[in-house]
Structure formats: C-alpha cells, structure tokens
Amino acid sequence: TGLTMAALRALRSVASVCARPPSLVSASQQSLNTQLSARLTQCNRLYAKKAAAKPSKKKQKLAMLREQRLAERQEQTEGPRVQEIIDFSPKVQKCDLMTALMREEIHHRTLEKPLPEFYAGSIIAVNYLDTMSKTKTRRAVGICIAKRKKGIGSNFILRNAENGIGYELRFNTYSPFIQSIEVLQLARRRRAKLYYLRDRPVKESYISPRFEGTRSVPGEPIPVIKANPNRTKVVKREPHRRLVTKRYIKAKLKKELKQERRPERIKLSKRHERRFKAGRINLPPKEERPTTLLSNPEIRHELKRRVRRIYRQDKARAKLSQAAALEAKHRS
Asked: Are 179 and 129 in contact (CB under 8 A)?
C-alpha cells in the first residue's frame, strides 16, 4: 500500500517483461503474471486516490511559501517597478485642499496594503494589530453587514456570534492597524445594510473562525445571496372577529344610509367661492336646508327593521355553529 514511484516503475517493467504469448509461458509464470497485474492495478488505484485527495494544511503552507519565494525571486530579477507619479494638487484634482490631501493619503495607504473588493453580505477575515501590544496580531472573521464610504473615514462592520451571543466589530477601512483583509466568500445581498440580522436568530450570523471559503474566479458575476426559502415563515393570524351587537349594527347602518341619501354637493367656481367667503352670497333659508336622516320617521322605521333582521340572522348562525361543534365532539 505504501509503494513509492520507483517501486511502481519496477513493477511495470516486470509486468512488461512477463507479458509474453501464453504458448511460450508456463503455468507458474502465468499465475505470477496475473498476481503482478492485479497488484499493479491496486497500486494505480491507490495512487490516483492520493492524488485526488485534498492536501493537508502543512502541505498547503509549504506551497504558499514556495509561491512567495518565487514571487520574491521574480521581483529581484525584474528590478524595482517604476511607480506612476500622480499630481494631487487641488488645481489638477479640481477640489479643495483638504480633499486633495485626503486622496493622496488614501492612494499611499492602498499602495502599501491593497484593498480587496467586498460588499455587504461577503464573509471577511481581518488581521489587525492589537492596540495593547506592538507585536501581537488578532484575526476577526465575520459577515460584513454594512460598508460606509466616506473618504479616509470609510469603515465597515463585521458581525459574528460566540457562545450564543452576537457581537459586531467596526473597522476603519484605511486604518494603519489593519495588516490585511481576506475575502473568504465574495457575495452580496439585496440590501445595502444588513441590520435586520440583529433581530434574527444568532445562528444566521454565525461564521466559524476556521471557515476557509471559496476563491472567486475573476470575471465571473458576483452571486447575490437571497433569504433562505426553507426558513419557517411567520403565520399571519386571522383578524379578530368583532362581536356583533345591536349598537354596532345600528352605527353601521346609519353610515350606509348617510352615504345613500347624501345630497350632491354643488361645485362652485373660484369667483363664487371668494364671494361666499366674503359674505356676498347668502345661504339658503332654514326651511329649505336638508334635515337630519334620523328625524325622518320612515328612515327610523327602516333602520329598526334592518337591525332586528340582522340580529336574528346572527343568533341563528351562532346556534347552528354550536350544534355542529357538539355533533363533531360526539362523533370524535
């Protein structure tokens, strides 16, 4: 099982030598050939499995160190790169002095530590210097819930949870205390600020500190993460059914009758309105004005009749529902 490449080559050479026509090979040699070929196929399978398996963390670190050394060698052979000189004078930048100074400072800070692309909803790891010590560094992993762009005062908020308690960390984007920003998973949400996660369960904002993530391929569109469709939705309660009483029915019917018998309003022109306000146009006499609806005996009689009918109907419905409930109870 633990064969090296040299042993595999030796086995292959033996198999090639032994692969002769069956007429020239004896029975013992044939059995040896079959054993060797079976062993060879087994070794090939194991080697393929090992190649396909994910490398260990130690091997990954070694590969990263090799890449860094190769990059350093290339820089040494190529020589120092000539930086493009940018004029940050207010006249060229077409802004005031403070804005020009701020732009220059941001430019120099991003040259030293390039800022990666990320949005609200991306999972980020920030390596920053501890304020209490000069050498100790800390690492914070979390989901970016807000990103504020305000020149040198730009900042972003990381949210995570520990021991069932959510916490947030605010970092200044161009702070000299930040050593590096790693984007573990580049994504974005449909909102610019994800403050709603504060009210959601803690498990929705938890991200493991050992989260490795997936590297985004340049040129591919950034995935938009939507809400979890399997999440339990809040069931809307039915509206509270109001207790139907004679008083409630009476008030409802009064409103309906007022709407039915309401006289049409005369639309006055602006000139007439001015005159009416000034008191030049007099109101009609009291005899001609429409009286209240309840003062009419016919309307009052009709109102009482409707109230009685609705009340009887409601009582009958209540009795039927009670009878049905009792019947269902007896059946069960």
From this structure: yes
Give the confidence band of 12 by pLDDT, cuts at 50, 70, 90: low
CA separation for the pair 25, 19 (Å, rounded): 9
Beta-bridged to residue 183, according to DSSP, are: 124
Q: Where are the alpha helices (DSSP H) in the chain?
A: 5-18, 27-52, 57-78, 90-93, 97-112, 246-261, 270-278, 297-331
Q: What confidence tens digit (pLDDT) does each residue in 196-217 have?
A: 999 999 989 899 988 887 766 6
Alpha carbon distance 234, 232 (integer Å): 7
pLDDT at 96 over 70: yes
* pLDDT recorded at residue 219: 67
Model-level pTM? 0.46
Q: What's the CA gap between 228 and 106, in Å, rounded?
A: 38
Contact assessment for residue 171 and residue 106, using Cβ atoms and an 8 Å cutoff: no
Q: What does the chain come to in residues?
A: 332
> For residues 195 and 52, what is the distance between their CA atoms, to the nearest angstrom?
42
Long-range contacts of 243-248 (CB under 8 A, 24+ apart): 244/310, 244/311, 244/314, 246/307, 246/311
| 165, β-bridge pairs | 162
Q: Whole-angstrom Cα distance, residue 258 to residue 308? A: 19
